[in-house]
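Hello,

Following up on my earlier ticket. Below are the two sequence lines again, exactly as submitted.
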Amino acid sequence: MPPTTATVTPGLASFLKSLKTDSVESSIEHFISLLKRRQIRNSRPCAIATTQLLLRVVANFKGRDVGKLLRRIREVGQRLTAAQPREMVVGNMVRRVLGLIREVAEDGGDADTNAMSDIGQSPQPQHDSLARPSLSSSISTFSPLRHGATQPMDSSLHSESLADSIDLAQRPPLLTSHTSYAAPSAPMVTSLFGLFSHPETPSAASTPTGYHSPNGKATTLTAQNLERLGDSSAKTGDLKAEVLEGIRELLDELDQSDELIAANALDHIHSNEIILTHSASTTVQKFLLAAAKKRKFTVVHAEAHPNDHDATHATILTGKKRDTSEDSDAEDRWKPLTAAGITVVLIPDSHVFAIMSRVNKVILATHTVLANGGLVAAAGARMIAKAAKVHQTPVVVVSGVYKLSPVYPFDIEELIEYGDAGNVVPYEDGDFVDKVDVDNPLYDYVPADLVDLYITNLGGHAPSYLYRIVADHYRVEDINL
Amino acid sequence: MSNQPPSSSQELPASIPNASDQKPRQSQGENQKTVGADPAAPPALSGAELKKRAKAEKAAKRAQQKAAGPPKEVKSAVKESKQGAKETKQAPKESKQLPKEAEKSRPMPLRRRGSQTAPPPKDLKKDTKQVGLFGHLYGQPRQHTVVGAAKEVHPAVLALGLQMSSYVICGSTSRCVAMLLAFKSVIESYTTPPGNSLARHLTAHHLSPQIDYLKSCRPISISMGNAIRWLKDVIIKIDPQVTESDAKSHLLSSIDNFILQRITAADELIAASASQKIQAGDVILTYASSSIVQSTLIKAHKAGTPFRVIVVDSKPLFEGRKLARNLAAHGLQVQYSLVSAAAHAVKEATKVFLGAHAMMSNGRLYSRVGTAVVAMLAHERDIPVIVCCESVKFTERVALDSIVGNEVAPAEELLSEAEREALVGLKSKPADSENVTEAAGDAGERGKGEVLKWWREEPNLQMLNILYDVTPAEYIKMVVTEYGSLPPSSVPVVHRISTNT
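Thanks for your patience. The regenerated structure is below:
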């Protein structure tokens, strides 16, 4: 976080401003470059930017075909996740939007024809009772980071195994910047083929073999899609409006998730409690502030030294992280905890074990929550959670549902981003940096067994229940972006 | 504490405050508020009046402070007996004007401790900056100057004290050796005053001020305490018949022997045996900086064992940087990370070597804060944790947690220059919005001092900077001492052996 306080620091605010004026394609490129340069980072800004961008993409979508809209979103999503695979909320938001579109399409289909119900219902029953096997098996073949970061063409390769060659030609190369040619070519040439490939992509990529015979499915789906062509041509305007409405609701959810989480605060914090938290998080701050209105307690704040300590200090002193305070208005400024009469004790990370025996509760913020109940959080969270475990102190993780990712962490190492070694030892110390390998991981993976409770905007959940919320929010077809 | 006459505590009023305890101090202040007289005044009054007064005082106090816990602590009075005694002496004179004084300061509960006259508002503020749980650990503020040192304090000790308080000399072993060397020059320049014997006078009247001064600079370490106890023992055993010069040379050579046997030779033995534990291809993880661990690693490296070292470190002292630099200079392959990354560092490690500040008799390790985290993470992954510790650091004390006994360092040390600088910009920012009122007052100037002031004056904000923590015995697989390699449960046995010989 170098303090480059020029008049316009590239970041979430400048991006949202430019989003209003720029064309869709340049906005996408802009966002990708911001992600790559880490100028938009952390879950919330990424989620907001992604959703706003997708709102634009949907609004500007000219075609009348659901399949193509889905493919367009998916294509954008692939580019975004490839740009910064470790910001998993980007992928989450893309999946949410995809699921939204599917839902809208299915609702329309259900109302109109019975024949459509096959598309609509084939994923639906899986969500209700049979979700577990199909979900896990589709996840298990999937490693989003490697797929996103190093082999961006991977998914298209194995989804193409069944699709025809025209689909290959039509799918744009993912990492190149001249993808825009797909947009003009898509509406006229491929509307029929698009219909073709839409239901087939999920069946190839994520439906476990043995559920349907590929042959039978392909034929029935084609028939249905042809039938729907007639329907959807009449209904696209309606559909698009509904999707846009849904995306706006998604934005509202992002906006309100902190308040909804904070509403649970009084159920979890009692008087005179000693609460330990870590690094700077607005969700945690609002959670604690909500409890502070009614109850008096003590907060022990570990500062997350090499990377987040400045933000932590700023949060303690002003209630706001530094980087967000620059681009937000005065209206959503709030008071620090100390002003609410809460005693805040700042400690270095090393003191965690020493003080843990007196701590009643640990409240952690998170970067991403994974489908198995584990989470990725700022470095140091792992040792705090473990120290809490050995002291039998409950660990509560507060997180919006938007941070919940359908990814299963098979390779933990690839989830961890490494940061600037200069934060650990300044580069002025030349001979030290020269001889010694300096390590600075930004994140820790905290396994599910170290967490006692998740509080999301939907309420409190056991870590073992998270898979169910994943199943509620993401479509199986979309897990493989 | 040994030099203070315990008898004087008898004549004290029961509520003489303990300097390090917050509650009795408040009780003192409120006591004045209610009674309006110095609590030390009673000796000037007649016996009957005194009794009456004491009764009234007690009743008032009890009424006021039911919540504040027991208002008097006879035990703590012993600690403060010296200053208390002074107070009683001055009391008769003061008691006349005191009612007025107390009236003046009525809104502000006044804390009076003998000759020390700190302005009360400042004291109050400081109290709110003390972390409640650790309230008992805050003693006198650390001495950073030679001002106010007793005149008997030897210049070598003066210098040493400053070096300790500024962490120039840091680490249990080096502090112990440095102290013994300073005491050597103290003893060299000592002459027994006529009419006294060296054995009696040296300890009580000459060594004690030195030790007190060192304590005021930074609380002494376990090893220093052990060494002092040993030295006093040696001094007391000196035959009064021996001439002074003989006695002094005997003392000097004893100190040299002690350093050689208990520290220098012990270090070598430990390094030799601990370096045997390092095998080819090992990845050794260590936390902060320990001189024995350093010599162990260098010894193993010189023996030709190929291995890698990970140094985990933490703010604010960053002792590990020195260790990493030294090891790298010897050609070892060193990786360095901070304690927040410990969970990652432990993954690669095959053994963990730790230094010690002290080994407790219940097998727990008392060492630089953060050690417990590293040991816990290593234990979780079944990586052996090996502690290298000379027997001079063993103590008969026991500890269950890191809160009852610890050392609190000044909180300002937590904020490095860069961190203060990073906050400077922020401070001016809230000043132009009306919401952050505390900061808005003095937005004119900027600077790092400003930020510190901000921290200090922000209500309800505290910083905690303790120096040690206690690692549970079950995380420790082995303690390497000069008596051999033992499980932590053998610590009390070794301590007995080492103190009896």
